[in-house]
Amino acid sequence: QLPTGLYKKILVIFHDSVLPYMNEPTLMMDFLTVAYGIGGAISLLALNGLFILIHQHNLEYPDFYKKLYSLLDPSIYHVKYRARFFHLTDLFLSSSHLPAYLVAAFVKRLSRLALTAPPESLLMIIPFICNLLRRHPACKVLVHRPGGPADMSEDPYIMEEEEPSESRALESSLWEIQSLQNHYHPDVAKAAAVLNQSLSEMEDDISGLLELSGYELFDKEVKKKATDVPLEFERVRGLFGKKNDIFAEHFSLD
Fold this sequence. Notes:
The protein is mainly α and 254 residues long.
């Protein structure tokens, strides 16, 4: 057992400064699988090392996707290691051989968590979800299912289910993304409106959105050039500006 702080310090540099210089990186399998099972930020940081062992050294991890699915909680859009996590999740979900129920579970869970996510995370996760739908056409039923649930209580998707295959995600619809089309941030509403049209075959490049911050969004808005605002073309009369109103007879703005 290591202190939490030490786990984080090791795992941040593990995939760059330790694994490439080991003669037998497979000796780290137990350490990384234990770290991956701890949860929270430690699990996120262990993903880098596990990714190298899975892809380069044939590590088999039977419950890997179940654990990855369990890491999706509301904090995932706020943690410091968000960019690293979603970059690796994108790689893990890139295979076209993954079953539709698994990808649908990830899409649905990310969509549900997006309801409470900040705008900078939403501008990243909506294209991320669209990319998953492009890679796995069987999941497009989530977008095109007519007569979706009228409210959350009618949604067949089981958010609390830990096993993706039992979550009933493929029976649901992406009403969460549709609700984001009324988001207070215009860029988010515009991004969510993409699902109203047929998706292009070309995937969106999300690499530049992974580390988008609230400060950058605010700075972008502040630096926008002011445009001419259309004014009332008819002179206002009276207290409430209505013609032939009793207030126009007795009150004046002069």
